[in-house]
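Saturday, quiet lab. Running sequence design on the structure tokens for the scaffold JK sent over.
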């Protein structure tokens, strides 16, 4: 067998490996929280859009929930203000809220255009559209951090309508309170709330870390598959800290509220979504129910 034929057979084997995953998740909803370096690096951004578009074209129903913190901070500085944070949360006064909404909607429309360029219909919406995200004011350790909201209710009808009409929804994390005031929402929290509301089969977080480690100091301890009880144990024993702690708590909350699997992926790896969803080994950490069947074969 010549080298050319071997090369083509390798391609065929890749497709065959993906087949059971395509069959299993066909017509199922997958929520992708898009953030980190994958939003800043143009090539990584292109890879993510290609991945999500491919998921759509092979029969999945993806929903993108995106952040935009770095771009918001950049625009805040352009206006002569300094970004402020309390306990890691952005202080969002009225002027900052106006900038955040402008930037997040801009990011969403740009992503929709990138998806459309690959031949898939996409719609960039805000949590304000269709009464999608209802919020209440969020505090940080009792401190007022301005127009920052905690999701208290999700009305997914607009998402179902878009999916039914074969659109790919792209959601920016902005919501309204009971007085119809506008609030910024942490994108991880928004993605988790949306995934619960639509009973997503999968929720994938694109981050700037490889996944969850048993020992954060030892890169060889990356956990490919983590059950909820094990995740809680890692938190209780103090093995999880920093930005991973709220993210892992979000993952546990999603699983306990109907999401089948949650993935924490390194968005800096090209095509990380495809590698995690369509290959036997995966590359990040998959969080699953305690009684779920083994995922990787």
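Result came back. Writing it out in full:
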């Amino acid at each position: 067998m010549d080298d050319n034929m071997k090369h083509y057979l390798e391609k065929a084997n890749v497709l065959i490996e993906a087949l059971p995953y395509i069959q299993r998740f066909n017509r199922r909803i997958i929520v992708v929280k898009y953030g980190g370096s994958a939003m800043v690096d143009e090539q990584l951004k292109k890879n993510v859009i290609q991945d999500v578009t491919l998921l759509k074209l092979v029969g999945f129903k993806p929903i993108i929930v995106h952040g935009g913190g770095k771009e918001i901070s950049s625009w805040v500085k352009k206006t002569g203000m300094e970004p402020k944070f309390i306990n890691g949360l952005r202080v969002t006064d009225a002027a900052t809220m106006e900038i955040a909404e402008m930037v997040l909607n801009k990011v969403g429309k740009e992503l929709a255009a990138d998806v459309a360029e690959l031949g898939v219909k996409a719609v960039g919406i805000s949590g304000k559209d269709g009464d999608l995200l209802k919020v209440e004011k969020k505090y940080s350790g009792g401190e007022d951090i301005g127009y920052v909201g905690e999701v208290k209710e999700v009305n997914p009808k607009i998402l179902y309508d878009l999916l039914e009409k074969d659109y790919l929804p792209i959601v920016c994390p902005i919501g309204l309170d009971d007085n119809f005031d506008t609030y910024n929402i942490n994108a991880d929290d928004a993605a988790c709330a949306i995934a619960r509301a639509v009973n997503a089969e999968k929720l994938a977080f694109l981050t700037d870390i490889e996944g969850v480690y048993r020992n954060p100091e030892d890169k060889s301890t990356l956990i490919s598959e983590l059950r909820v009880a094990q995740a809680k144990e890692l938190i209780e024993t103090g093995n999880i800290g920093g930005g991973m702690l709220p993210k892992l708590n979000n993952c546990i909350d999603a699983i306990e509220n109907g999401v089948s699997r949650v993935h924490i992926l390194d968005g800096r790896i090209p095509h990380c979504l495809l590698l995690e969803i369509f290959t036997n080994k995966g590359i990040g950490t998959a969080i699953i129910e305690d009684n779920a069947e083994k995922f990787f074969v």
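Notes for JK: The longest strand covers residues 143-154. The two ends are 29 Å apart (CA to CA). Ask whether to fix the surface positions before the next round.
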